[in-house]
Specification:
Order of helices and strands: H
Radius of gyration: 27 Å
Structural class: mainly alpha
């Protein structure tokens, strides 16, 4: 087993911590917006499928006759 040497980090300033926090918060908001759009698209596709499925089923039954 190898032993890794850990170098101590310098403490971050309050400004660096706040900057990192704001950056992460902004990234999180972007991810939430993307997820919301994906959910809206999914719901729209689900609605179209629900509306079209009976028509496709009926067309299949008619073609079998």
């Amino acid at each position: 087993m190898s032993s890794a040497t850990v170098t101590p980090r310098e403490p971050k300033s309050e400004q660096e911590v706040l900057g990192t926090y704001r950056q992460m918060q902004s990234e999180m908001q972007g991810l939430i917006q993307n997820l919301t759009k994906i959910e809206m698209d999914r719901n729209e596709h689900r609605y179209v499928f629900i509306m079209v499925a009976p028509v496709i089923s009926l067309a299949f039954c008619v073609s079998l006759e």
